Amino acid sequence: MSTFGEYVRKRRMELQEGDPRFSLRKVAVAIDVEPSYLSKIERGEQPPPGEQTIRALAKELGEDPDVLLALAGKVSDDLQKIIRKRPRIFAELIRELKDMPEHAVLRLVREVRDGKW
Amino acid sequence: MSTFGEYVRKRRMELQEGDPRFSLRKVAVAIDVEPSYLSKIERGEQPPPGEQTIRALAKELGEDPDVLLALAGKVSDDLQKIIRKRPRIFAELIRELKDMPEHAVLRLVREVRDGKW
DNA sequence: TGTAGTGTGTAGTATATACTACACAACATG
DNA sequence: CATGTTGTGTAGTATATACTACACACTACA
């Protein structure tokens, strides 16, 4: 597992190869933070930014916000809100699924999504 | 929905009826915080305390920690950790379940719990 | 009537979070 | 060789979080 900073830098560098819009400075301006701040984050000198900044970064880099948030040690606020509305049931479900193999959870998600409920 | 403070005060008061160990001071000492701090929390003058203090309080009052944490606007760190390990799948599942009726989610939890997977 | 226990008011503190502002050296490009 | 663009270094700030320390007034009761 790479850190948040490493992951972002790698992804941005890849995009930068083919497009000058992905220089550190341009991206920083696009997501509305100081270039030096983004620099420090990418090098792990500063901890990951706040949720809104991570979301902007994810959008800019074409990444999944939930994945980036996870790398930053965070869980999306909208998910937290959903859990907090029914804390008991969601707590139980999530703890139950903790050690389930990937395919089992995937099957579950698919069944729920396909509306067999 | 009551606030965190109101909820705690009500519950503690009920217990205090039959047992002097549930005075504000005694509970505060038991969970290792200053009585004045707990007083302010119960009256909503201060925001809810941190997760560890909420857990101690839940234990002391015989309440569900996840419910108390939810009232405090928090989600248990162990749940967040589980989600962060597989952010995509859990994000999708939780958002999918957001508007599901209680009985559907309950059925799902039961099926998972009973190991039909 | 003193003393033990009750809740509360005032006035702080330490640490973390989430950044900004600006200067600077290296490099490239016209 | 000046101009623009690159990433980075230094030195801060504002706000939130999670509390402590201690004094005070009131009540119960022995």
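Chain B touches chain A at residues 64, 66-67, 69-70, 73-76, 78-80, 82-98, 100, 102, 104-109, 112-113, 117 (CB under 8 Å).
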